[in-house]
Amino acid sequence: MPCYIVNKNAQSNGDHEVHKEGCQHMPDLDNQMPLGAHESCRTAVEKAKGRYPTADGCAHCCPQCNHG
Ligand SMILES: [Zn+2]
32 alpha carbon to ligand 1 midpoint, in Å? Predict the structure, then answer.
């Protein structure tokens, strides 16, 4: 299972993006909060929402979990 991280910094639209390890659009290491390994981005985003209610999947590595 791939590992996921969430960006500690919100984007301009207020979302905290969730990325799959290896994504080209990962934030700086200092801004990554690890979410652990997940079967799919859905559970990774669910976990991220426990910390950041506005968490959303990255459009590039988690398109099926991206809602804008
Ligand atoms: Zn990504």
Answer: 12
Ligand 1 centre to CA of 64 (Å) is: 12
> Could you tell me which residues come within 8 angstroms of residue 58 by beta carbon, excluding any fewer than 6 positions away?
17, 18, 19, 20, 23, 25, 66
Q: Which domain covers residue 10, as residue numbers?
A: 3-65
CA of 28 to the centre of ligand 1 (A): 12
The pLDDT tens digits for 12-67 are 999 999 999 999 999 999 999 999 999 999 999 999 999 999 999 999 999 999 98
CA of 60 to the centre of ligand 1 (A): 5
Total tally of structural domains belonging to the chain: 1
pTM of the full structure? 0.95
